Amino acid sequence: MPHDHHNHLSPSGHPFRADNDHPLSYWQTMEIAVRELLIEKGVTTAAEIARQIDAMDNRTPANGAAVVARAWTDPDFRAALQHDASVATSEMGFDIGPMKLIAVENTADLHNIVVCTLCSCYPRNLLGLPPDWYKSRAYRSRTVREPRRVLAEFGVTLPETTQIRVHDSTADMRYVVIPARPDGTDGWSTDDLAHLVTRDSMVGTGLPKSPDALA
User: Fold this and answer.
1) Consecutive 10-residue runs of the chain (215 residues): their mean pLDDT?
2) Any catalytic annotation for residue 121?
3) Which of 75, 102, 151, 204 has its Cβ near the most Cβ atoms within 10 Å?
4) Is 120 noted as a catalytic residue in this protein?
5) Which of 10, 12, 86, 120 is catalytic?
6) Domain harbouring 138, CATH code
7) What's the predicted TM-score (pTM) here?
8) What angle do CA 156, 161, 167 make, to 5 degrees?
9) Number of domains observed in the structure of the chain
């Protein structure tokens, strides 16, 4: 399932994507009208909008990796993250906005996985844009029904004794998974630890890299 969207290739060898040349939808038309009205009224400018779009496009999983690495090394921050992840991450400069962010921690006995069954709610400020598979109907429906099988398709095979807990994101609530810190990383700096944190490990569909991967 993680790579289903690569099944159809264009003549150039790239994944096929349909042309976006259909008429504007109601919401696209509304967005243009509101944006032009805000600019006309002096509430904002085209340059400010462009800067904000650039800032949004530049968000990557490296933001979330920095949060995870700090949680692995700073017990006080880890406690703050578990108490109120929105506040804790904003103090690192990652503004989650009006929605509530909840950090869930993986342990030897518990594995968390995040889904949005209604659409594609995702902690974009920390992880950037969601991957295509996260938005797919298959992932959104099957993860709730058969999470262990879905994880196996991502290459994550867990002991039967490990509990799998599925968290359903909503329009006003986001989740981020704090994966278990890999063994053999005692004394590592937060920068080095952050290199072990993958996007999928913060969604719950993957695990952090092995320390050997950076050797």
Assistant:
1) 50 56 86 93 89 73 97 97 96 87 97 95 92 95 97 96 97 96 96 97 97 79
2) yes
3) 204
4) yes
5) 120
6) 3.90.330.10
7) 0.78
8) 60
9) 2
